[in-house]
Amino acid sequence: MRSQTPKVLHEMCGRALVLWPVQAALEAGAGTVVVVDSPRRALEGMLPEGVALAVQERANGTGGAVAAGVAALELSDDAPLIVLSGDVPLFGAAQIEALMAAHNSSGAAATMVSAILDDPSGYGRVVRDADGAVVRVVETKADGDATAAELEICEVNAGIFAFAAGALRAALPMLSAENAQGELYLPQVLEAIIASGGAVGAHILEDPRLMLGINDRVALAQVRALAQELIHERHMRAGVTIVDPRTTVIDVDVEIGQDTVIEPFTTIRGATIIGARAHIRHSYLIDCELQDGASAGPFAYLRPGTVLRTGAKAGTFVEVKNSDIGAGAKIPHLSYIGDADVGAGSNLGAATITANYDGREKHRTSVGERVRTGVDTTLIAPVSVGDDAYTGAGSVVSEDVPAGALAMARARQENIEGYAQRQKDRGDRPKDPPAGGS
């Protein structure tokens, strides 16, 4: 990855790579999930509650990693155990369930996931005997161990397995590092299981794209594009209109209600929740909530902690942060609302600003229901504006406004007659710009 960040901590569609298989395992109903970390313990503190962490003290290959994980488990010999790869993010809960079903129905001691690829370069090849039974997996890395004939095989190992726990435990000590990479290859356990009389099956993956692994940033971009396509498809099949998926970014944990419309050049990140019949136009949303019928944009920026309640609007060039915008309230354009509570039915005029930070602390602003602020109103927090109150255009409001009152907080206008001529007489009048502009 050419990065100081461990590969499996690189983000894809709002989730670290390693958390994709973790979440898939949890959704598939795994009783226990163990994640194997390196001695750096980069994953400490970031795993979901109830997920255990094991450490592979020495970087000695996938076999060593699985041995570290198995040591952290207490399973009966006939208990099923699934091994997933932390850099294969798209093998989801449905695929895990299908693998388990195939493994249980076959009665095999081990079942591997394989796929048929037109270009199998870089993947270990699945070697079968004349009867079609799996014999072994041969690695094909640079200076690998595959023969020319084995390199012609198009069935590849996806690096994902189901085992009977006892068969795996018995086979792991038989792994050898006598190979081109000097590593313990997990697929070697298949040969050990076969040698001890166990059966090995292969579950062929119907969509080979779901076994794509990530080893560099090029692959990360390619897999991210596929993940985004699957996310879009899931929402559209659930009744969401995404006008142009090619220009729309939606993270994996975003929730969107039926009949909501997402227009082009919109980005929706984090754990954002959008209700039904909302409308998002060319906007950036992160970790916020839009209830039914709410609308954002064009060019709105809704930051974490923002709630737009039913029918509320954050319009053109509006930024909202950590604020609760009441039902039917409107912030039509050119405003910043931060750390505020805005009541139902209020309308904040163009360029309404909540000055929420005094240089040391942030303070909240409270705006009641049915409030009308004039253009260029600045609310200096902490301040409260009562229900049905108004502010005059250009007002800087630093004291509470009673319900139903009109707050005017601006200097009285003064016109100085003849000012332009006096400036000209003094020679201070700016020269006209040259042709073509200044």
List keywords for this structure.
8 helices; 438 residues; elongated; 6-stranded parallel beta sheet; 18% helix; alpha/beta
Measure the end-to-end span: 48 Å
Please mark out the parts with pLDDT under 50 across 5 or more consecutive residues, or reply none: none
Helix and strand composition category: alpha/beta
Count all strands and give the number: 37
Helix content: 10-25%
Outline type: elongated
Main sheet makeup: 8 strands, parallel
Which percent band covers the strand fraction?
25-35%
Tally of separate helices:
8
Let me know the average pLDDT: 94
What is the C-alpha radius of gyration, as a whole number of Å?
31 Å
Give the strand order of the largest sheet, numbering strands 1, 2, ... along the chain. 13-16-19-22-25-28-31-34
Summarize the topology.
Blueprint: E1 11-12, E2 15-16, H1 19-27, E3 34-37, E4 52-55, H2 62-71, E5 80-83, H3 93-106, E6 110-116, E7 125-128, E8 134-138, H4 148-151, E9 155-164, H5 165-171, H6 188-195, E10 200-204, H7 217-237, E11 241-242, E12 249-250, E13 255-256, E14 261-262, E15 267-269, E16 273-274, E17 279-280, E18 284-286, E19 289-290, E20 295-296, E21 301-302, E22 307-308, E23 313-316, E24 319-321, E25 324-325, E26 330-333, E27 336-338, E28 340-342, E29 347-348, E30 353-355, E31 365-367, E32 372-373, E33 378-380, E34 383-385, E35 390-391, E36 396-397, E37 406-407, H8 419-425
Parallel strand pairs: 3-4, 6-10, 11-14, 12-15, 13-16, 14-17, 15-18, 16-19, 17-20, 18-21, 19-22, 20-23, 21-24, 22-25, 23-26, 24-27, 25-28, 28-31, 29-32, 30-33, 31-34, 32-35, 33-36, 35-37
Antiparallel strand pairs: 1-2, 5-9, 6-9, 7-8
Helix pairs in contact: 5-6
